[in-house]
Amino acid sequence: MREAMPVKTILLVDDSRTLLMMEKTILRRGPYRLLTASDGEEAIAKAASERPDLILLDLVMPRLDGLQTCRRLKEDETTRGIPVIIVTTRGEVGKREEAFACGCDDFVTKPIDACSLIEKVESHLGGS
Amino acid sequence: VISSLLGAVRARFPFPVAVVQHIAQGFARGLAGWLEQTAGHEVVLVEHSQALEPGRVYLASDDSHLIFPDRLRVAPSGGAPDQHQRPSINVMFESAAASFGDATVAILLGGMGSDGTRGLRELRRVGATTLVQDPASCAVGSMPASAIEAGVADRVMAPADLAEALCRLASARAALCSPSSIP
Q1: CA B96 from chain center: how many Å?
Q2: Contact B58, B6 (CB under 8 A)
Q3: What is the mean pLDDT of residues A24-52?
Q4: Does the beta-carbon distance from B69 to A26 stay under 8 Å?
Q5: Is the pLDDT assigned to residue A92 strictly greater than 80?
Q6: Which residue of B has its CA nearest to A89?
Q7: What values do phi and psi take at A84, rounded to 5?
Q8: Among residues A38, A118, A52, which one has the least CA distance to residue A81?
Q9: Which alpha helices (H) appear in A6-127, and where do they start and end?
Q10: Which of A18, A89, A113 is most worth mutating to test chain B (most B CB atoms within 10 A of its CB)?
């Protein structure tokens, strides 16, 4: 008997509920369990308790921004191994070097292209 | 006002149009049929995710938000109500700002409350065009008045002027998109 593939969990982090709805609508097409967090602190807490397989993290958020959140996720032994994709806008390209220094694994750029988001998500989840 | 606005733009409008109307549950389908008859455009009630087509009018179904998951698609979303509204104008406007940026032309018509103001602020931030119905021409004008007070309206206009502005902006954008405009 073939074993069912385990469903992968993705944590979506954005302070805009509308952006979370958009990301959920795109990713709902895949076999994923989707969790959401509306700020960096909530993301860090959920990452530690839920151990998602991937985190999609908005760069600009109040209080703890995407870079600070990413740095803290990568400093913590329990969440260090979770791939982090940071969502930037075209105007934030200059932040990419800083984000890589914080340990982020990849980027997607707003406006989000559904196909490229799914490709990136699959490439980071594939085979893990 | 929506019907007269849509009726004033030509049938083969070169862009998709999305509409959110605060309406009691169960009435959206009837509104879609009525709009199609009176305004002369194909009106689609957004009950599932689908590709955006120029010339079509996409009406939010009752009890679902209308969002643009990316720049090619429109979809319903069962996310939580925003300021007690679902569908929410703020959600549609914010989603348009994220997916279409400065290519968006947004119109806020009359209504009660302040839905739309936050969405127009985000649209202005990304360089979109924001038009607001003159509250003096509305049966209930608190919604456009809220946007005007917040300073998020590029122009405040009577319904007839809104229709003319929409046609003019669409023509300008269609010319920009036409292959013949590329040198």
Answers
A1: 9
A2: no
A3: 95
A4: yes
A5: no
A6: B98
A7: -120, 125
A8: A52
A9: 17-27, 40-50, 66-75, 96-101, 114-125
A10: A18
Task: Give per-residue pLDDT as tens, B20-57.
Answer: 999 888 899 999 999 998 888 899 999 999 999 999 99
Interface predicted TM-score (ipTM) over 0.90: no
- Cβ distance of B68 and A22 shorter than 8 Å: yes
- DSSP assignment, residue A53? S
Pairing of strands B73-77, B50-51: antiparallel
Residue B163 has pLDDT above 60, yes or no: yes
Identify whether the C-beta of residue A55 lies closer than 8 Å to the C-beta of residue A87.
Answer: no
Of the candidates A19, A24, A25, the beta carbon closest to that of B98 is on: A19
Q: How far is CA B18 from the centre of its chain?
A: 5
d(CA A95, CA A121): 21
pLDDT value at B172 more than 90 = no
Query: In Å, what is the CA distance from A45 to each residue of A50, A72, A80, A82?
Result: 8, 11, 13, 14
The average confidence (pLDDT) of chain B is 91
- How many DSSP H helices and E strands does chain A contain? 5, 5
Interface of B with A in 90-109 (CB under 8 A): 90-91, 94-95, 98-101
How far, in Å, CA of A47 to CA of B168, rounded? Answer: 50
Nearest neighbour of A22 by CB, restricted to B90, B95, B100: B95
What's the pLDDT score for residue A2? Answer: 56
- β-sheet bridge partners, residue B77: B65
Output A33 or B9, whichever has higher pLDDT: A33
Q: How far apart are CA A112 and CA A125, in angstroms?
A: 19
Helix, strand or coil, per DSSP, at residue A7:
coil
Contact B98, A19 (CB under 8 A): yes
